[in-house]
Every structure is written in C-alpha cells, then in structure tokens.
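User: Hey, quick favor. My workstation is busy. Could you predict this chain's structure for me?
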Amino acid sequence: MTSWSGPTGRAGRTLLMRLAVLVFVAPLAACDQAAEAPANTVSAPPPAVTVLSLQPTEVTPGFSFNGRVVAVDEVQLRARVTRFLEQRLFEEGADVDAGDLLFVIEQAPYQAVVEQRRAELASAEANRANTAVQLQRGEELVKSKNIPQAEVDQRRAADQMAAAKILQAQAALKQAQLNLGYTEIRAPIAGRISRADFSSGNLVGPDSGALATIVSQDPIYITFPVSQRQLLAHRGERGDPVVRVTLPDGTLYEHPGKLNFLDVQVDPGTDTLTVRAELPNPHRLLMDREFVGVRVERGEPKRVLALPQAAIQVDQAGPYVLIVGSDDKVEERRVRLGALEGVQVVVEDGLNEGDRVIVEGIQKVRPGMAVAVSEGPPVRPAGQPALQPPFGSTAPGRTITQARLALVWRSRDDAAPQFSVSRGSAEAQAAKPRVEAGIGEPVRSRTASREVVSSSSSRSRA
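Assistant: No problem, here it is.
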C-alpha cells in the first residue's frame, strides 16, 4: 500500500508541492485585494457649514425688553337706554372723529315722553301764575280787613307749592330730553372703531355690553416690565433715554419714543416695574395690544463686533467660537464677550474684522476639519431691538452665560465632564427627531451625576 505521509512516495511529493503553492499564492492574493480596496473607496465630502463674515456695526448701549402696545384712549360704546337699535352709521374698522354719530336707537317713545313733560311744565307754570295772582289779591284785601290773615297765608303756601311744581316739571323734562339724547350714540374720542357687536333690529340696553370699541391711534403707548435691579443700576445717569420698537416682522419702527411714566408699585411676583413710553403713530403701524420688541438706549453709538448668540460655545475654559480659516479648515477661537445687544452678543476680544464665524453646522465639525463653506444672511445691526422671550425681559445685567446658553454636562469615554452649549437654532431643532429616533448622533440622558449614552447600535445589542 502506498504511504501518503512518506517523503519518498510520489503521492507525498505531489502533496508537498501543492501545499507550497498555496503558502506563497494566498498572501499575494490578499495583498492584491488590499491594494485594490482603497481605489474602490469613495471619500466622504466635507461637512457643509454656514458662516458670517464679521463686520463692525454701530451699537448704542441699552437694554431689550418685550412690550405691549396700549392705546392712549379706549372707549367702549354702550347703550344707556333700552330700546331697539335702528341704525349703524359707521364703517367697521374705519377712523372716526369725536362727535360723529355712530348708532341710533329707537327714538319715538322717548320723543313722546319729552312732549308729555313739556305739557306738564306748561300746566305747572299756568298754575303758578294763578296762585301768584290770588296771593297778590289776598295781600290787598287783608289790609282793609276784608279777609283774615290765615287766608293770605294759605294763598302764599299754594303759590310756593306751584313754584315747586314748576321745578319738578322742569327736571322731568330735562330727564326726558336726556333719555332722548341717549338714543343717539356719538364718538366721544377720535380713533379707530371696531366691528359692531349688534346689528340693526336688536334690543339693546345698559346690560347688553359694548356695542363697539374706539381706540385712539396717534400717539400711542408701549408698556414693558423693567426689573428693579436695572432701574437701580441706571439711576442718576444723565440724558433722556430713547425708546425704539421692533415690529413683529422684525423691522425697526421708524419713529423713536420717549419714556413718560414709571409705575409706583413693584409687581411682587416678578420684582418688576411697569414702564410706559409714548411714540407717534401717524401711519397706524402700531395697533392696540400688539406684541413688540422694545429697546431702551442711552449714550452715543459705538462701533463694535457682534455675533449671533447661536454662534457662541461654552466649555470649562470659557466661551469660544469656531471660525473657518483661509484654507477652509475649522479653527477654535477663545473670545471675551461683552453686553447682550438684542439677539447678538458684543465680542470685546478674540476676533477680527472679516473672520468667518460658523453659525450653522457647528455640531458636525471639529477644529482642523476641512469644510464646505456657504455665506449666511447679513446680521441684524446690533443696535436694533428684537423680540425676546419672557425670560429675557426680566433678567437685568445679563451676561452671555445667562443669554439663552444652557450649560449641560457631557462626558465621553469616562473623561472629565465638560460644558457644552445647548442652542435653540433651527438646525438643532431639525436634528432632534433624528437623534431621538436613534439615527445619527447618540442620544444622551443624564442619570444622577453621570450620563448614560445610548445609541441605535447599543439598543440593538440590548
């Protein structure tokens, strides 16, 4: 029988030759595959970011608040007599002048009462004329002893009662005329009138509620809350502050205003005082009860560099921003921040004019990464006010760490915890559903003092 393991057999020599070929060929094939793999791999494109080219802007020192537009005069038109509404003589939503006739209530019954009271007055006057003549005759007769003195006294009393009846009839006639006048409702002030709550033919009266409302238009008030701490910080400063208003669409109202009232009591719930400003409103752009942004400025404008709040990052070392260098790579810059001006933050040190600061896509990049750059929209001038949430309206002397920057703990690979910024940008809000669904970045949840990092892969393993 042939031995397969013997070195001298033909079958053994054949087997050894085959093994040698496999030993040398297999590594070469693996090397060829490894060399071909990078050629077939497509590199990922650089992440896209939006930048703002930093330019100086003029800023006037001041504070931003949330305010409400309040009409100087507001009048609710109500019926003072109870009858059917006959006419509405105005166009709803139009401007009216003081004295314009607006509503006419049924007049015929009140006109009849007026005529009746006039007749009663005429009767009382005729009776008084008779009693006066009788009194005069009695006084002449008593001199010749033809009538007793008691008769003269009775005639005098009757004459006085007749005079009182005249006064009573005159008062009744005046009341009837007033009621007749109440059937015509006129505009007590000039302004813009609302829609009518009652149409012709409805029964109206003092208990019916307002028929319509008139609000004055020009000038107009803006009220807003100011903290006691802010008032104390600026007490004694010279110069009248200027009040500027931002409309709900973000545009700056062209007419500045001035402060004209400071409340005498502090709201115990918010520790704020209500401040009122008066502004001209010739074009009727400001409407009663409208929500607007308010900025109170004092001093001369200064040229500064300002950034949107969304561009600011904060860690244990302090605030910083990410910029794009001339080679389109991300760089980290430490900054020293100043006051909060509207929706922007003044940068006192760390940035230069022309630096390209990343404002969108910050979560996707790290220092040293190459990025695809696109220019963002121009930044609103820092001196312009903008709508702020209620949190911003009552926080005096806020620094950047209080300016809508929420600090949260983040740990990675059991390293020391660091501070990061939770931004309310549109990009972060758009990414939130994907993160919660386990797509993209891992979802971080904090339990006690540590964070448990859970991702889609960890949940699948579980």
